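Minimal example, chain plus NAP.
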Amino acid sequence: MYKHKPFTDKIVIVTGASSGIGRATALKFAKGGASVVLAARSHDKLKRVADEIAPFGTPVHVVSTDVASREQVDAMVQGVEKEFGRIDILINNAGGGAVGTVEDSQFADQARKLLEVDFFGKVYCSQAVLPIMRRQGQGVIVNLSSVVGRKAFPRFGAYSTAMHAVSAFSDTLRQELHGSGIQVTTVYPALTQTSFFSGLPKDRMPVQFTHMRPLAPETVARAIVRAVRKRSPRLILPWQPPLMLLGDTVSARFGDWFVRMMDKGWFMRLIGMYGRGP
Ligand SMILES: NC(=O)c1ccc[n+]([C@@H]2O[C@H](COP(=O)([O-])OP(=O)(O)OC[C@H]3O[C@@H](n4cnc5c(N)ncnc54)[C@H](OP(=O)(O)O)[C@@H]3O)[C@@H](O)[C@H]2O)c1
């Protein structure tokens, strides 16, 4: 719990707030005194998160929104501006995943769907809030990418492709907004224990997940809040993936080797990421 409430009077939109990282992040901002707007498709699940937030005594609004629909996103953002008069922070988090190889017949459809939700959803939300943040002369946009948005994993191609698109979009936006007062942060979490994996077939998942210790969604949420406060341009967690990414920049052979080694328990122990997968 915060000693003082750093986000009092701040209006924060969290997409994908009904579960996992989004839920944990919404709770964290609400604990920090923010008014939170919870957006996702399932009204019932959002309502349950709103009930968890109610004891903190901060305003909380539930808006059923499919982020893949520009019309629904625009309506949600217009509603928030009408209600609160401003938008301080957008957490662009909504999204899902898919597993399977590039040769699978569903690959193109999976990639298209993930681009629609995980990538264009973030584009629509950003484009909707930016005129408001420009008028304010300040604001924060946090885009959830993933470690595989910097180095793809086999059997995770459709998702890795969408996350690379998010990384490039977020990197572009941050530079275009330099000096505007609007901060853009890209977040790259490794495997995180959420319902993200619950609908995905285990036998087609990346083998790298077999011995990987997942992060808790609360750990990611805490890091997001810290990144917002510190105005960090980028956040990669835990600390080990940057070593792989550094090596991969120098040599794709090294990067591919590192990813291959991640399916070995002893190697995951060696780099301190050993666990039982999602
Ligand atoms: N879990 C991981 O290992 C991991 C690692 C790195 C990055 N990430 C990223 O973190 C973000 C959150 O994932 P999570 O792990 O917290 O997964 P999660 O627990 O499955 O939560 C996903 C959230 O997104 C919402 N959502 C999905 N499709 C949507 C749509 N079309 N419109 C609006 N909301 C939608 C879901 O709610 P509804 O179904 O009700 O819409 C849910 O609230 C994702 O962007 C993911 O790419 C996850």
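The first helix runs from residue 20 to 31. The pocket of NAP is lined by residues 15-22, 40-42, 45, 65-68, 93-96, 117-118, 144, 146, 189, 191-192, 194-196, 217 (CB under 6 Å).
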